[in-house]
């Protein structure tokens, strides 16, 4: 490429048209990708995984986001902590595997040894004057909300995570996700910028045409889909679904399952939305037959017909919690045009594969849906590479929540660029 | 073989003819063999799965009688089989292993015993077998499987090492094909074949993990007395209805504690051989010296750093032998179970083989 003027990012931000998709550089430019890592992923609460991945003391997972690498580890006291994956001696990467189990965190280079609380407890040949207490691992903020792990790498983490916790803890409590197990984890690399991954996730405009498997249980009217004024059949369908939702939500709420939508997607640092969604058919699970895929329900639940508690968090996650299982999705930017989508299926920790659940049946709907979404994101990425691309209008009827995502994103950049 | 449809099958009757002819000797594991028998005249065998018979064996100038489970299944009535473990110093088991060959005859008496699914019919069973105690449970499993009874069976098969699991391949085959059958191997010691599954003595947690619904099952247990006592304890403590618990003892109440205990030498005071498989080096190490120290003195260089059991750098796989390890958190219980040791803080208690 010929040399060109540096991107005027503040101008691009200032010129963003509300209600429209972002300008091409937001999906392609290295400078903006780096800014995204620094600002969006470096200074906000990121969904990093689930406690169920770390059932025992010494269990750890590694999470890399750009040049940042952190290790999340369960200590001997049972608490989960996160640290920068950087040795305090000469900076070598401490943990090299994606996940595992350790006694202590030991640097492979010169074997500096850290307690699982981050404290340096062994460093040979460092002389009399060396003070190990000044060389503990650098901590990363970590909050576990109902068993979902959120981390923030900034020195000061946004305080409004408390609002997310306040809304989510009671909603997640019945699922007892800390006593679940990860039945399956699948990593998928989407050929698109992470924001295209997220935008695609925030609408169901594309569902009817692309997601036959998910469509068995997931009603397109569930998340921000409003039929056209002259679509009478659609109006009737939407009204029928709405009536079902009103009755069902009232019933759930009365039985102590908070269900009504809580939406704080923009206008704050920690954006989120949650709602218990009525599923179609038997209404139990996002499976092909809409019935529970796992015989042993999560937590101490006895009723499988709890719909799907959905949760979105900005900037990088979406989740569905059902009576029999939960699915969590974590998007990690890899480079300007590649995004890792990590999907985890959780079931009760005592559920036995092949007895209580069949893994294929448990995972088939979202495996299919993820593949379909990856193909759509790839198409979108290919499109934004063309000089003919210009920001297009979000549907006011079905893409209001995509606009919320783009709005949150632009707000956050603005807030940090001043 | 031709079978006449009109003729009623002739049944073997030990009251009139107690002879059985050995037809085959099959090797199950290092110290377990199966002996297959035919009745004279092709007569067929009728018994309940899980029953045993008393066998009379001429050896050492006298006649010895021992009980053996008919490990075969009555659903295949043309033959019976017993599966016998060689007991060190045992008269009959060694005689069978070393002498009995196809064509030889043996006397057997009427099948006996109530340890049988036929006597305790249920929709769901939990079978717990340890060592050669698998024989009656195998007979019952074969019968249920042959009959396609649909009975839901969880079969827990326990042995010291993977290599010692009796009927392992056959169990795996049945479990793979019969959806009502689920198999769990449990290993209590260390063998050549690695095992990442259940380990150790039966505990409540283990039984709950293998069969969370064990309370709904009819339970059959057979194995060494200690094993059966442990299972009994677990079930009783879990509030299991002991009327649905059945066990078979191979010792006929023989008092194990009556055996004269030999006074063992203190293994800490002896000098042991430590073999390193990759380098092929052998180092002598007394019971008070850490293996890492002895190795270093002998010029064997091994990775290490803290030498305090903290950093895990010296972690190595122990292939054989016993050590006493006093670590400081550099190794997890799971790793220890998987046979890992920290050499800097492990002292030998027997000859030891280390993968290094
Ligand atoms: C109902 C019943 C069913 C049985 N089914 C089987 C079967 O299917 N397969 C099988 O292999 N055995 C089975 N046995 C055990 C069998 O009857 C013999 O006890 C066993 O083969 C040992 O006989 P032996 O002559 O070799 O040893 P013995 O000469 O009788 O004994 C030698 C030494 O070994 C000890 N000893 C005896 N038996 C055992 C043992 N089981 N474990 C450890 N030490 C022992 C004795 O205390 C003695 O010190 C069964 C026993 C009973 C009561
Ligand atoms: S860089 Fe980690 S111990 Fe030297
Ligand atoms: S050398 Fe550190 S644990 Fe052995
Ligand atoms: Fe989609």
From TrEMBL, chain A:
Cofactor(s), names only, from the UniProt record: Fe cation
Short name of any one Pfam family annotated for the protein: Ring_hydroxyl_A
MF terms (GO), sorted A to Z: 2 iron, 2 sulfur cluster binding; dioxygenase activity; iron ion binding
Keywords: 2Fe-2S, Dioxygenase, Iron, Iron-sulfur, Metal-binding, Oxidoreductase
InterPro entries for this protein: Rieske_2Fe-2S, Rieske_2Fe-2S_sf, Ring_hydroxy_dOase_asu_C_dom, Rng_hydr_dOase-A
Sections of the chain in a coiled coil: none
Domain Rieske residue range list: 45-151
Name of the molecule in the record: Aromatic ring-hydroxylating dioxygenase subunit alpha
Organism, scientific name: Prosthecodimorpha staleyi
From TrEMBL, chain B:
Record bears the keyword Transferase: no
CDD domains membership: fer2 (cd00207), FNR_iron_sulfur_binding_1 (cd06215)
Domain FAD-binding FR-type: 13-118
2Fe-2S ferredoxin-type domain: residues covered: 272-356
Keywords: 2Fe-2S, FAD, Flavoprotein, Iron, Iron-sulfur, Metal-binding, Oxidoreductase
MF terms (GO), sorted A to Z: 2 iron, 2 sulfur cluster binding; metal ion binding; oxidoreductase activity
Highest taxon in the source lineage: Bacteria
Pfam family, one: Fer2
Cofactor(s) needed by this chain: FAD
Family: In the N-terminal section; belongs to the FAD-binding oxidoreductase type 6 family.
PANTHER family linked: NADH OXIDOREDUCTASE HCR
Name of protein: 2Fe-2S iron-sulfur cluster binding domain-containing protein
């Amino acid at each position: 490429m010929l040399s060109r003027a540096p991107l005027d990012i503040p101008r691009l931000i200032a010129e963003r048209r509300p209600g429209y998709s972002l300008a091409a550089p937001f999906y392609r430019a290295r400078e903006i990708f780096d800014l995204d890592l620094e600002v969006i992923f470096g200074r906000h609460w990121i969904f990093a995984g689930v406690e169920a991945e770390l059932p025992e003391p010494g269990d750890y997972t590694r999470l890399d986001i750009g040049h940042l690498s952190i290790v999340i580890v369960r200590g001997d006291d049972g608490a989960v902590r996160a640290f920068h994956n950087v040795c305090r001696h000469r900076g070598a990467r401490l943990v090299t595997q994606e996940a595992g189990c350790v006694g202590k965190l030991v640097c492979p280079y010169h074997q500096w040894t850290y307690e699982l609380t981050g404290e340096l407890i062994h460093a040979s040949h460092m002389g009399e004057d060396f003070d190990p207490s000044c060389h503990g691992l650098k901590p990363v903020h970590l909050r576990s909300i109902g068993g979902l792990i959120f981390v923030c790498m900034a020195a000061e983490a946004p305080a409004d995570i408390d609002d997310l916790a306040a809304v989510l803890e009671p909603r997640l409590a019945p699922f007892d996700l800390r006593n679940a197990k990860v039945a399956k984890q699948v990593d998928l690399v989407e050929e698109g910028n992470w924001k295209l991954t997220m935008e695609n996730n925030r609408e169901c405009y594309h569902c009817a045409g692309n997601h036959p498997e998910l469509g068995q249980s997931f009603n397109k009217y569930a998340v921000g889909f409003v039929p056209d004024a002259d679509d009478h059949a659609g109006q009737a369908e939407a009204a029928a679904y709405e009536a079902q939702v009103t009755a069902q939500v009232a019933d759930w709420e009365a039985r102590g399952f908070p269900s009504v939508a809580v939406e704080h997607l923009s206008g704050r640092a920690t954006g989120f939305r949650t709602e218990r969604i009525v599923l179609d058919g038997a209404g139990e699970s996002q499976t092909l037959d809409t019935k529970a895929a796992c015989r042993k329900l999560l937590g101490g639940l006895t009723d499988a017909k709890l719909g799907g508690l959905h949760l979105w968090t900005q900037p990088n996650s979406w989740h569905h919690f059902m009576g029999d299982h939960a699915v969590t999705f974590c998007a990690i930017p890899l480079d300007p045009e590649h995004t890792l989508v990590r999907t985890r299926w959780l079931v009760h920790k005592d559920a036995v594969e092949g007895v209580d659940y069949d893994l294929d049946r448990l995972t088939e709907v979202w495996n299919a849906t993820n593949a379909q979404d990856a193909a759509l994101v790839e198409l979108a990425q290919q499109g934004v590479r063309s000089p003919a691309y210009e920001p297009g209008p979000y549907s006011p009827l079905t893409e209001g929540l995509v606009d919320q995502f783009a709005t949150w994103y632009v707000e956050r950049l603005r807030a940090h660029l001043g | 073989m031709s079978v006449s449809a009109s003729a009623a099958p002739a049944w073997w009757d030990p009251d009139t003819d107690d002879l059985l002819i050995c037809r085959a000797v099959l090797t199950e594991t290092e110290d377990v063999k199966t002996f297959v028998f035919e009745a004279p005249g092709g007569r067929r065998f009728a018994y309940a799965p899980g029953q045993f018979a008393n066998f009379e064996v001429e050896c050492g100038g006298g006649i010895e009688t021992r009980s053996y489970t008919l490990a075969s299944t009555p659903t295949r009535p043309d033959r019976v089989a017993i599966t016998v473990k060689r007991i060190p110093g045992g008269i009959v088991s060694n005689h069978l292993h070393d002498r009995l060959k196809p064509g030889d005859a043996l006397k057997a008496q009427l099948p006996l015993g109530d340890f049988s699914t036929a006597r305790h019919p249920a929709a769901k069973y939990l079978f717990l077998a340890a060592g050669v105690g698998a024989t009656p449970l195998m007979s019952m499993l074969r019968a249920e499987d042959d009959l396609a009874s649909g009975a839901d069976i969880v079969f827990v098969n326990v042995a010291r090492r993977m290599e010692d699991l009796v009927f392992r391949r056959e169990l795996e085959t049945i479990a793979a094909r019969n959806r009502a059958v689920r198999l769990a191997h449990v290993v209590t010691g260390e063998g050549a074949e690695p095992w990442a599954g259940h380990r150790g003595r039966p505990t409540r947690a283990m039984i709950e993990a293998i069969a969370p619904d064990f309370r709904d099952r009819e339970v059959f247990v057979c194995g060494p007395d200690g094993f059966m006592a442990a299972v009994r304890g677990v079930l009783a403590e879990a509030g299991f209805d002991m009327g649905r618990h059945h066990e078979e003892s191979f010792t006929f109440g023989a008092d194990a504690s009556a055996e004269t205990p030999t006074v063992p030498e203190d293994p800490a005071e002896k000098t042991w051989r430590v073999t390193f498989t990759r380098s092929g080096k052998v180092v002598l190490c007394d019971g008070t010296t850490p293996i890492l120290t002895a190795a270093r003195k002998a010029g064997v260089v091994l990775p290490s750093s803290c030498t305090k059991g903290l950093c895990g750098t010296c972690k190595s796989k122990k292939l054989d032998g016993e050590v006493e390890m006093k670590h400081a958190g550099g190794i997890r219980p799971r790793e220890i179970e998987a046979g890992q040791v920290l050499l800097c803080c492990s002292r030998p208690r027997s000859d030891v083989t280390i993968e290094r």
